[in-house]
Amino acid sequence: MTGIIIHAELHDAEAQAALQALLDRMAHRRPFFAAVGERLLASSMDRFRTQTGPDGVPWVSLRPATVRARTRKGQLPLTILRSNSKGKIGSSLAGSIHYIASDDDVQIGSPLPYAGIHQQGGTIEKPEGSRYMVGRRFARRDQGGGRDVKIRAHSITIPARPYLGFTPADEEGVLEDAEDWLMR
User: Fold this and answer.
1) Are 177 and 43 in contact (CB under 8 A)?
2) Beta strands of 4-142 (E only): which ranges?
3) Pick from 2, 165, 161: which is nearest to 82 by CA?
4) pTM of structure
């Protein structure tokens, strides 16, 4: 995965010790880690629906200019980090989340190049350049009647909207999954 992978650990020392004791008793752990991956995947999908981070804090709302631009394009104006591309495959951050389970761990993340900045937030520095415009809209250069317009260098700040991570319920669920796996 080239986008983002999250590495999470249980912070509760007692829960960590209990999980390690259960893992030490497991011979083939890949199915257990796959169950954990499914749990974390479902938890991440819930975050896209509720638009909140693993800590329960709501994501920063979209800027009014973004809402206006989406409305003009006929897109859903208020969905954050979900597809507005009218069904194009591979266009949704939410749809790109998957996990890889092994006998030693599970990794969950997205291969999309912009996944990391949405998880952690950051600033993108855009260099000076030019764009082709027809009237007051950006257009392809093969459209007639347009002109090149200079675009100044500028910054774009994207707030963190964490969609990956452990909730307290996830931690409890992982311990339950480990106990269930050992009872089989």
Assistant:
1) no
2) 4-6, 98-101, 106-110, 122-126, 129-134, 137-138
3) 161
4) 0.73
Cβ contact 158:117 at 8 Å: yes
What backbone phi and psi angles, to 5 degrees, belong to 112?
Answer: -70, 135
CA distance from start to end of the chain: 32
**Residue 153 CB contacts under 8 Å (≥ 6 apart), including other chains:** 125, 126, 127, 128
Tokens of 64: 């009014």
Rg, C-alpha atoms of the chain: 21
Which element (helix H / strand E) includes 182?
Answer: helix 168-183
pLDDT digits (tens, 9 = 90+) for 108-160: 999 989 899 999 999 999 999 999 999 888 888 888 888 999 999 999 999 99
Nearest CA among 104, 162, 154 for reference residue 129: 154
List C-alpha distances in Å: 52 to 44, 115, 161: 10, 16, 8
